[in-house]
Each structure stands twice: as C-alpha cells, then as structure tokens.
Specification:
This protein is mostly beta strands. The protein is built from no helices and 11 strands. It has strands at about 10-15, 25-30, 35, 50, 60-65, 70-75, 80-85, 90-95, 105, 115-120, 125-135. The radius of gyration is 14 Å and the shape is globular.
Length: about 140
C-alpha cells in the first residue's frame, strides 16, 4: 500500500501572505487511488478516511505568513477531503467543514516554508474541483 508522500512534489507555486489576501484559486481533479486509512498519519485536526494520490496535488512555498491565518478550501462536484502537510511535518485532515460535502482547513499560524496539499475524495471517486487559498489578518 502506498500512502501520501510529502517527499514528492505536486504543482509548485510560490505564494506570500499578502498575495493570498486576494483569494487564489486553481482547478484540480479531486480523488486518487491511495487510501489514507492505515497510513499511520497522526492528524492534528479531524480524522477520517479518504482517497488521494501518492504525490501532493500542490506544493506551496510560502513566505511572509507572519500575522496571517490561511484558509484552504475546496468546492467540488463530489464529497471532497483535504489533506495538508506543513513544513513542520504536521498533518491536517478535513471532510465537510466547507459545507455541501466539501472540505476546509484554516491554519491559524501558518509558517513560512513548504506546504503540501492533497485534494481527495471520501469514497475513492474522482471529480472536478477548485482549490481556494485565502489569508486573513490574525
């Protein structure tokens, strides 16, 4: 069984806290063939199941994040999940906090450095989705 691997890279973007003050969005295909169940990931947030690709969908190099919180959310045509790994190797998971079976994670003190994001699905299906990134002043 392969699990999400933060040593692999997804589509790479360099973003700042200020640049995400205006919502950034990108289209993505949600889902994958890797079940996160049994991967031994210790989540610092909700726990649940879902399917993602082995490599992250996005690898973000963040800078200028002091004073901001970061909202990462999905709008999709299916039951989406979000999986995030921070540069400090902290894992976060969400299933439905964005409403309408979509996922949302708010990082209250995001750090500068790498942030890997997987956009998956709860049941292993695949669908079109949009990832939204937005910062807010703390």
């Amino acid at each position: 069984m392969a699990c999400p691997n933060y040593n692999l890279y997804g589509d790479t973007y360099e973003l700042t806290g200020r640049s995400m003050y205006n919502t950034q969005s990108v289209n993505v295909r949600a889902g994958g063939d890797q079940s996160i169940t049994g991967c031994g990931i210790r989540f610092g947030s909700d726990r649940g199941r879902g399917y993602v690709t082995q490599a992250p969908d996005f690898s973000l190099k963040l800078s200028g994040m002091g004073g901001y919180k970061l909202s990462v959310s999905v709008v999709s045509k299916c039951d989406s999940i979000l999986l995030i790994n921070t540069g400090a190797a902290n894992w976060f998971y969400d299933d439905d906090d964005n409403g309408n079976l979509d996922a949302k994670i708010v990082l209250t003190r995001p750090s500068n450095g790498w942030l890997d994001i997987w956009v998956g699905t709860h049941d292993g299906s695949v669908c079109d989705a949009t990832l939204y990134l937005e910062t807010f002043r703390r």
